[in-house]
Design a protein that fits this description.
2 domains, mainly alpha, about 110 residues
C-alpha cells in the first residue's frame, strides 16, 4: 500500500504514513480506536506481582518504561510503592500463565 499524499510505501496494517503523517484511506482510517484489553495484572510477564506489566499491556506501552517510572516514583517520593501496593491489591490477575501443562496422551 502506498500513501496517497506523498507516495511513500506503507504496511498493510498502517493507519498513518510514517513519512508525512497522512491518514491512510479506507475503512481503517475512519474506524474508532479498538477497545483496550481489561486492566489486570499480567502474570505471564511479572517480576513481582505483574502490576507494571498489566499497566503496560493495557496502555500499549513498553513494560520497561513503566517499571522505570515506578522505580523513579519510589526513589523520589515513595508514592510509587503505595501505588504499586494498591495496584497489587485492586487489580485482578488475568490468569494467563506462561506455563501450559502438556495434555496426557490418550
Amino acid at each position: 500500500m502506498y500513501c496517497t499524499n506523498c507516495g511513500g510505501q506503507m504496511g498493510d496494517e498502517d493507519r498513518f504514513c510514517a513519512r508525512c503523517g497522512h491518514a491512510a484511506g479506507g475503512p481503517q482510517a475512519s474506524a474508532p480506536f479498538a477497545p483496550r484489553e481489561r486492566l489486570s495484572r499480567d502474570i505471564a510477564n511479572k517480576k513481582i506481582a505483574g502490576v507494571c506489566a498489566g499497566i503496560a499491556r493495557h496502555m500499549g506501552w513498553d513494560v520497561t518504561i513503566v517499571r522505570v517510572v515506578f522505580l523513579a516514583a519510589i526513589l523520589f517520593k515513595g508514592a510509587g510503592l503505595l501505588a504499586y501496593v494498591i495496584g497489587w491489591l485492586c487489580m485482578p490477575a488475568n490468569g494467563n500463565r506462561a506455563y501450559v501443562p502438556a495434555q496426557p496422551a490418550s
